[in-house]
Amino acid sequence: MTAQILIASIIGGIMGIVSHIKKRGRLEKPRMTKRFIYLGFYEDFAVGTIAAIMLVLSSEPQSSFQLVLLSIIAGYSGEAVLKSFEFSAQQEQPEGPPTKNCPSHKPPLP
């Protein structure tokens, strides 16, 4: 399992950089402005790596072909994969009674 995670992280990171180049047209280096620090291609490398690891851990591929294919897909579309994990985690939470601040809560009629 450790080898699968290592392979997924490498492939996902490389595909994250490829995705960065496709979006921006070039490889942007990290830079610092007055308001924030822009991580450049390191950001997409990290997102691709994390997305590939999460997808491989959640799906448990049975063959090396599945491992490589899932890592490529997750690394290239890293932000979408991470958003899908976040969305599925929110769906599993049980809904409680509405509160006063909830937009769907309507006060009783007099």
From TrEMBL:
Region (Disordered): 88-110
Alphabetical keyword list: Membrane, Transmembrane, Transmembrane helix
InterPro entries xrefs: DUF4257
Superkingdom of the organism of origin: Bacteria
Keyword Transmembrane helix annotated: yes
Membrane spanning stretches: 6-24, 36-57
Pfam families linked to this entry: DUF4257 (PF14074)
UniProt name for this protein: DUF4257 domain-containing protein
Biological source species: Metabacillus sediminis
